[in-house]
Each structure stands twice: as structure tokens, then as C-alpha cells.
Amino acid sequence: MESPTDSFIGNHVLDRRIRTTLSNAKITLCELNLTTRIIHWSVDQSFHFFEFSKSYDGTFDGYFKLIHDDDKERVAKSLEHLNLDEYITLEHRVLWTDGTYHWLEGIGKYYQEDGMSLLIGTIQDITERKRLEIEREDWERRHKLVADAAGVIVYDYDIESGSIIWSGNVKHILSFSNEEMGDINRWGDLIHPDDRESTFKALEEAQSQLKTFEVYYRFRRKDGEYRNIYDKGTFLSDDGKAKRMLGMMSDVTELMLSRMALTQSENRFRSLMNNLNVGVALYDVNMVPVMHNKTAFTLLGMTESQFVGTAAMDNEWNVIDSDGDRMKPEDFPIPMCIKEKKAIKQVVMGVFRPITKDRVWLMVDAEPIYDHNKDLLHVICTYMDFSARKRMEEVLKEKNQQLTASTKEVERRNERLLEFAQIVSHNLRSPLSSIAGLSDLYFNSNEKDQDQAVSYIKDVCKKALETIDDLNKVLKVQQGDRIRSEKLRFEDCLSSVIELMKISLSEKNIVVDADFMQAPVIKYPPIFLENILLNLLSNSIKFCSKTEKPEVIIRTKKIKNTVILYFTDNGLGIDLSKHKEDIFSFGKTFHLNMDSKGVGLFLVKNQIRTMGDEIEVDSKVNEGTTFKIVFKNQYE
Predict the structure, then answer these.
(1) Which NCBIfam families does this one have (predicted)?
(2) What's the mean pLDDT in 555-572?
(3) Of the residues 23, 252, 338, 436, which has the fewest C-beta atoms closer than 10 A?
(4) Where is the domain boundary, 98, 125, 152?
(5) Which positions ≥6 away from 23 have C-beta within 8 Å?
């Protein structure tokens, strides 16, 4: 291989300062022998100066392999058509050690010497310069496309000369030709006087800081009309100094007018919202309010600063539903609207307001708002003060309950009246029929038979009066709602009853075992409680055991506000398989006892039913009977 010192470059001594300058500029001298296909580099430079790929062998063919495929054909053709003493410039990309391509610029002159074809010159790394050129070309291409498509003006401002190259829709927007737009001074003259100083100040600031120039100003058209212009430019620099600015100007007059109209409309809308007596708030998908009127945070008992940023499911609100049950945050209208992706309407919420320490009833609607892709964008929520209506509903509910209770009471009284009428009809029919028959006998018989008929009539009338007296007692029981309840002691009431019946108890040697320790007191009408005890005890006396020692056991028990009375005897008992449905019926008897009229248990059942209480019976023949009376909410 030919030594570098034998080459043209090696035979010339380079000044050290020149070599240093070339090195700093990333320039090296080279000699390409087109005949031998050998490259010689300057003596103090090597091919590693450019960080060529390690596969490079120092030959031109090896160098050619490193050239980018898109540049090889162009380089080869340029070297094939060289003229003597002709200068040639070749820009091409070469593979670097790190796998990237760098742009190199080769400038040389073609010689022939000693039968050899030589190309002598320099090679410089121009990657950075090329990058800027490509960026500029790309910027110009893109901005021209944008300008043509969007109808804007594109300009190229040379800062040093002040000249401006205009393109795009200059004529359409400003009525000037590209030439009439002129330089930087002409551009400044056409800016509205009130905007000129601020515009140039913004330009100088952007230029000094190499930042984007972006400004709005009014610009005079050729016909004298001023248009609103949006101007945005980017500076190209060299060594930190702005050299050029590439930018675009667009007519935004209609946009500005639309913005003004939108602002006015928004102001009117906000004024309208703030004067509504309905709270309106716009929430984002995270349930944070982004827009609202005054009524919204006023209804919720908050200041505006507290409302802004407060989540739509803030636990401090302590919300209950229309039935008074605590609402879970996930059941609030806004979370439900987001979850179900549909409108949630007319949700009644009782919101506790932390500041005012009171509860307000609100009717809340939540409506989803979607973007053009049908993705949820916002939820608009309205709050209407429902407190007055809620109070009216509660009053109406109470009135309805009272009406329902009154209706039931009327129905109950009608039932009792019908029952009483049937009892009267049933129990008076027999004596009246007897009287009618005896009257016929009286008028159709002799004197002796007439006396006997009168005697019979007296007996029948007596029985009829007794029946009427019994029916009168029943009527009084059925009017028991007029009887007032009092605080009573079971022991006192039972003592009064035993005093009335002590002869009967003594005659049949009946033992009464009473224990009221678990529930000694009850609130009840005195006449009712005494009558219940009297009839039950009378029943036990009438049907006491004839074989066993007669015994009556009385106990009370308390469960919460309920008192239970157990009344047990060991008497004859009742066959429930036959008489269960008739035990408390009027006039029903179950044993051969002339003193039994079937009225006592009927009166007991009616008195207990009148007070809204219950009575149950358990009985076995010849073993005895137990009555269980449940006095509801009567414990004192």
C-alpha cells in the first residue's frame, strides 16, 4: 500500500494553525486516487476522525460501502463524469460507529498526474447544518401545506436585512400582493397604532430569548379595514443568535367576534343561573364541581370556597332518603348517573348542612353529558328545595294515616253494630215470639188459663229484660274508646273482684294463687280490667272441678312494653275440637249450668278487642283452661 507520506498531502507541510482550525471545524484533507482506489488522509488525521464504522478498511471501496444506499448511485455517477481541473461538491451520508448516519460534504478538484486520476480536497461533517436545513425545509413544507389548507399567510423574515418573503393567502386576507406587503417596516406601518408598540415589544422579547413569537393585533387591509390577526413565529438561530423567523398569520376576526358573542352569552347565562331558585352544578367524571350557581352551594349550606372542589358524595352532608334511612354515598344521584350512564331523576334527599346545623330536603336530578365519542364528559346536577313540599307530604301522610285509622274505626264500629243488631234480633226474637203466643192463649182461653198465661208472660218479660240488660253491657263495652286508661295495680283490681265473689269462692273452697311480681302495673281502663278479671274468675267458679281441689293460678309477665296475663284453672275444661270457634261468641255455653248465659267471655273478648289487645285460650276436658291475654304497649 502506498504510504500517506508519499501522497500529495504527505508531501506538503501544513501549517499547524491551519491544521488546528481544520480539526476544530471537523474538516480533514484527503486525496482519492481513482486509479488505485486508495484514499490518503492528512498526516495528522485518520479515518477514525469521523468515527467511521469499524468495518472500514481504509480503501475507497470500503468507504463506498459505508455510504447510505440512497446516496450511492448519485456519488458513483458524479465520480464517473469528472472534467479536468473541475471542482466537485458531494453531500452524502456515511455509516458511523454507533450505527447512525452522518452527513459529510466533500469538496475537491480533479487532477491527472503521472497517469493517475486524483481527486484532492476536503471532507467536512455537516450533520448539524443538514439537520437545520432539513428542519427548515420540513417546516416550510408543512406550514405551506397548512397555509394552503387553512387559508393563512406564511412568511420568512430575514432579521439582518429586514426583508420578508410572503406566501399563502395574502391577497385573500389582506388584499395586498406579496410584493406590496414589503419588509418589516411596511409590516409595522400596517399594524393598528394602538397595537404597534406592544407587538414590536413582544417581537423583540421573543427574538432576544429565542422563544416562540405569539401575539394578536389589528392589521389594516388595502381597503382600510382593520382585521384581527393571530401571528405565530419560530426563530432559526446560529450560535445563539436569531437569524430568521418563520411564521404564520391568520385572520381571526370572526373568531374574536364569536368569542365576544360567546362571552356575552356566557355572562347572560351566568346571570340567569345565579338568579334561579334552583341549584345548578356541573361535575366532572371525578364528581368534582367545575361550574355552579350561587343557589347550589347556598342550598347545601356551604360557602362558595367550600363548595369548589368538594366531592359530590361528601360524607359530611349526612344524607338520608325520603324514608329517613341513611343513604350510602354510592347511591347518590351523581355516582349513580356515572355508574349507570343514564339520567337519575327526582331523587329526594335529606341533606344535613354542617354550617347551619339543620337538614334541608332536596329533589335532585343528575343528567349525563357526553362528548362526540360518546364518552362521559360531565354530569349536570340540579338541586331544588323540597323542604316545604316534604313537610306537606308528611302532613298529608299523617292525615292519610288518621283517615285510614278513622275509616278502619268506622268499619269496626259498623261491624260491631251489625253484630249487635244480629245479637239483638236473635236474643229478642224468642221472648217476643213467646209473648205473642201467650197473648193469643190469653185471649182465647178461660179465666184460669188466662192467669197462667199472664204468669208466663211475666217470666218471659223478665228474661227479656235480663237479655236487654246484657245487651246494654255489650254496647257499653263496644263504646270503650271513650273510657280513659289509668295506672292500675293488678293486685288491687283482683282484690276488689275477690271481695265481690268471696262467698262463691268460699262455698266451693276455691284457692286463688296470684303473683304479679314480674309485671305489677298496667295502664288500662279500670272498668275493663275489673270486668275481665271478674268474668274469668266467675267462669272458673261456675265450671270448677268436682273431683280435684279447685284452684285458680294468675300470673303476669313483661316483654318490653307488653304485659301478658295468664289466667289458669283446673276446672271442667272445654273441648276445643268442637267449640274453639264459639268460645267467645255471644250466648254460647258448653256445660249444663243454669247460671251460664254465654255472655261473660263475649264481654271479655270485646273489651280486649276494643283496646287493640289479644286473647288466646288453651283447654282440655277435665284438666282445666288457661287464658292468655296480651296487653300491647300498656306497661307503665
Answers:
(1) sensory_box
(2) 89
(3) 436
(4) 125
(5) 44, 45, 49
